[in-house]
Amino acid sequence: MASASPLGTLALFAALPALVPSLVDPFTMALSLGSAALAVSLLLRAGLISFGHGLYYAAGAYAVAYAVRGHWTGDAALLALLGAGVAGALAVLVGSFTVRYRGIFFAMLNLAFSMVAYTLLLKLYGLTGGSDGMAVTSSSLLGLPLSPAAFRFGLFYFSVGTVLLSGGVVARYLRCPPGRALEAISSSEVRVEYLGVSARLVLLVAYGLSGLLAGLGGALAALDVGHVAPDLSYWTTSSVFLFSAILGGGGSVPGSFAGALVYELVSLYGARYMATLWNFMLGLVILAIVRFAPRGLEGLYRQAWRRPG
Amino acid sequence: MVTTALTVLVNGLIDGATLFLVAAGLNLIFGVAGVLNVAHGSFYAIGAFGAATAWVLISQAHAPPWLIFPALGAVAAVVGAGMGPPVERFLLRSTYLGRSRVRSESLQLLTTYALFLMLEDVQKLVWGVQPYYTGDILLLLGRTRIGGVPYTNYQLLLLLVAAGVLLGLRVFLRRTTMGRFVVAVTENAEMARALGINVGWVWGASFSLGTALAALGGALSSPEIGVSIGIGADMVVLSFAVAAVAGLGQIEGAALASLLIGVGRAIAVFVAPELSTVAPYLLMLAVLLVRPYGLLGVPEQRRL
Amino acid sequence: MTAPLLDVREVEVRFGGVEALRKLSLEVYPGELLAVVGENGAGKSTLLNVCTGYVRPHRGRVFFEGREVTGRPPRVITRAGIARTFQHPQLFASYTVLDNLRLAVAAGRSFWRFDGLEGGGRDAEARALADLFGLAALGDQPVDQISWGARKLVDIAMGVALGPKLLLMDEPTSGVSSREKFSIMDTLVGALRARQTTGVFVEHDMEVVARYADRVAVVSEGSVVAQGTPRAVLGDAAGAEVGPRGAGHASD
Fold it and tell me: What is the rounded distance in angstroms from the CA atom of residue B287 to the CA atom of residue B253?
């Protein structure tokens, strides 16, 4: 029953831009951000905090940019898939190293990798365009050529579709033994090993999936904004993912997207007033959530909807 | 050829000196209180900004330039003693114990990460976004030639300070009573408490000392770099890399690791300048692949 | 004489300067229930840790079903057919009793499946185990909210759920009331017999040992100093109390 309301909310969310066209861009970005927040959430379930998922977001985005530059395809759907795939593959590669670690090590290793990527993206001007970044142009979606205006809407609904699909896959995954094992690992990794299950393998699967999701988000952002730049891999980007994940409640599919949407809307209308202290506010809110509402928005939501008795 | 090698070595030593100060502080705090402060690098930056401000004030007041030296120390002390205790007491103390080790570690991580985020903007607010260049400080003490290459005596002073800190910490921890208390708390806080040692005080003092070391590193290195937003974040990542190579909690390891990384960076500057910022992380990766817990680190074994 | 299921040969373990196990040798035969007794610090838990891969011996070897398992990690040893329980139950604190059991069942045979935690017959098996161990009423309670005795039972049930050939139990009845002890042991022994699982349990209560064990091994200062039937090892008075048990003792 709890899943009925998120779907209803999603339907409302999907319908709004048709009525209020100016919401198309922020909503697409919210979906992109939500995908990355979900990626971080997955790992939070296992007690692993990543400070560097911007790496996979950037990987997805730059994969799209290179594909466009190399004229492989101009189709947004294929590009999004490509971005997700490249990021997922990268995650499996990096993950085979990072999932050996826990706690601060895991968090900081991810940060280190993402900052190294940032530096490389910035410095290797010839390959990456340096701080100027690269342009991304796409004019067709699922084989249909679209005008720029129609493309924005098309991309939005495509994003809704991919989010629905990926969200569904993740939700199912979290209900099955490999997904259930994530929280088990954070409860008692020893016990997991003594059940004959490899915690590393379970985590690698989760990490790869999380890379894929973040890459999808990055690809969607690249397609929406039309441009990629190194700061996609900077720690500030990663902190927004983590923030959204924690705001959402740190573990569920709807929660992650809720957190991302709230962040996106607040940053859209609030950034003007608090630009200098933006990180400060993020930090303060994280402290508040961690101290007073550890289950974030999802927890508050469940409390509101709890049946009496 | 030999002179080149010597130059690289000396450059590496000097670079490593600052790194050591910061990493030693990080490892000290971790060793004693088991806290890995993500925001440790932020204190480095604040130390650097503080030193830059001190220099600006000294210049504007036309005060004698040598005053900057005690000022550098003062800045470190102020940061350590001023910011350390409130952070440790109000932010971190409650995260030490918890029902689950993973949850309390996650709590610590998120709390210190939030602190890092907040301190980044505090720096922006107080000091703005324009870089501060205080390179003139470097010239105050004159120059020396080593292997035909001129170094400022300031840089050599840095080396001396780092060596002094290393020696000082060793002597403190092994020879003094207070140092032995610290070691006792490091090995077994519960036991130390039972023996009557004020564990909370030791934690607080270690945190302040570690923080002061980070700020000292920042203050001392400020003339060599453009002090601006972003150096804190860079040091957050870099100091972790050093600590990871050393082995968490290992102070002597931090010296070794800082040396390695300093020299590694110096070699990279020579061979592939574009990659010099990335060199420390390649080194970290290489070390961790062979020794997952760092050069001197030990894995934790839980008793079942 | 049947071949031993578990063969521990002259194992030595040192922690820092302390010798925890000194040339300890022990054999466990298929189908038996062996009790390991000894004073605190004698090395009983270390013995279990060595047999299950948590600790690597400096010398000596461990064989299971004739194959060497010395120094293999816990995961590999579990897959080979040895399961264990813990002095302090290691459970998934945030999950319910049934979810803990379902995960254990999944781990036992079909982990990489995507038909839900309850799918593939896992739910039925978990419920059957819960019933067997008297935990059915607590099924939907989070395990961090149930009693110590119940938690010990969940721990044991999870071990049984893996369908091991050998189950090593570290003080399965410690911390529970005398009354509960016997009922736990009855359930435990019944479950092991039904599944033809060999069992080894560390125990401090000699009455429990006398009543349920087929054989006893006494560990003192890191080695086995005596082994045999409870009566032989513990003396006539203790051996006289023999509870209802099924047939099938191992020969000496």
Answer: 13
